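Protein Record: Sequence and Backbone Structure Tokens
======================================================
Tokens: labelled as protein backbone structure tokens, with as many entries as the chain has residues.
Task: work out the structure tokens from the sequence, keeping to the layout shown below.
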Amino acid sequence: MEHEIPAHDSDALVIGAGFAGIAAATQLAALGRKVTVLERHDHPGGRARVFHEQGFTFDMGPSWYWMPDVFEAYFAKFGSDVNQELDLVRLDPSYTVWFKDGPVDIAADLETLKATFDSMETGAGARLQAFLDEAEVKYEIGMNNFVRKPAHNVMEFATWETLQQSTKLTLLKSFSAHARNYFTDERLLQIIEFPVLFLGAKPEKTPALYSLMNYADTVLGTWYPMGGMHEIVRAMVRVAEKLGVEFRCNADVAEITDNGKTVSGVRLQSGEMLGAKSVIAGADYHHVEQTLLPAKWRRYDAHYWDKRVMSPSSLLFYVGVNKRVPKLQHHNLFFDTPFGPHAETIYDSKTWPEDPLFYVSAPSTTDRGVAPEGHENLFFLIPLAPGLDEQAGQRDAYFNEMCDRLERHIGMDIRPHIVYKRGFAHREFQEDYRAFKGNAYGLANTLKQTAFWKPKMKSKLPGLYFTGQLTTPGPGVPPSLISGEVAGVEAHEWMNVHADPFD
């Protein structure tokens, strides 16, 4: 909608102070732009917000720190050092997988892990090395040639070097088939397939390209920033503010405005009008395009969005207990029931699961500062199909099922010692983040939703760009950082070649 917009106070406005939004703002500021970030909540972080209750510090979203090279490069690019900004600890074991017959530790040391694989299947240690060597090639090619492109069209990838490299990515083979070339033991296959479970499709429908995730988790390691994952957000905000980025919290955007030809700014729910040369939307893509934009500027319609294959949503519980739980590691995957039926409910039937796999994080095993003395901070997660309707009592039933199985495995009671519990699922994802269908992880990384087949970073409205997990390069914290950087460069270049509408 065309509006009378005041002279701009910023070159660019960024909607949403999640990882992608902060990264986009920082990139623009580093290029000399004056940037304001608008965040509807009372503190930055987006899905990586934090809350404090009864002496506990609960990270609300991401709990895995993978691909440390991406964070290292990010902070270095903007004049800082990740090791000065964050107190990073490499976890060992990286995580523990609880099978029906007991736990398997995924050691940080590769030789130790190879010995574990050998104990479960003869010769599997050497095959793990071969699998990871091949995955490393994909990781290097992907990071160097693919993920840092805006993916506006296929021609960005049409260089001879890129075409040559793409033959090594095994794009047309499924991850499931690829893994079975190396391993036969079902437990090992579940361990190998775990990193792709949240990419949004069954391993048999996920390209073998994504074995690069195994390289990231096994070789580059699983880390933790002391104080919690929200410390990453705080560090990013510090770096951004040093470059001049302004953050405005409790600033909820009601509308993106235009002058008939280009974007011209935004209107807040308060009625305040803010002008800018460019706008980057780091909020949920579907919400921004379908709600904040006039229809004439929408690239996609409701039918398009309904046909997208989404990554899972999640049922989460933030739990504080007044005793230590010594048998839990920092990250714990409970694969004590078959994955097939659970996967079918997520990706095919779109129903609530029976006997689901689940995940428990206990960050207080690493970081005593996130729980009171003698207490444990626990985070429970069940991956679910997006778009489910919740029935009364359903959350408690699932929580009790997880606790039944957890208590059986660790040989101690949890529920009598709970002093705090908070649930979070589809409804909260929609209310807090306006997440399409209550999604937690964005679009599925299927082949037909990769690179230029994802929703476009560049809007039909000139000067408006999208960033985050529903556009390129995809879901996850490191990809979101990269998405923000790329969007920032794109917006900067657009401003360079277009006259200032306010001049």
Remarks:
- The longest strand covers residues 313-321.
- The mean pLDDT is 92.
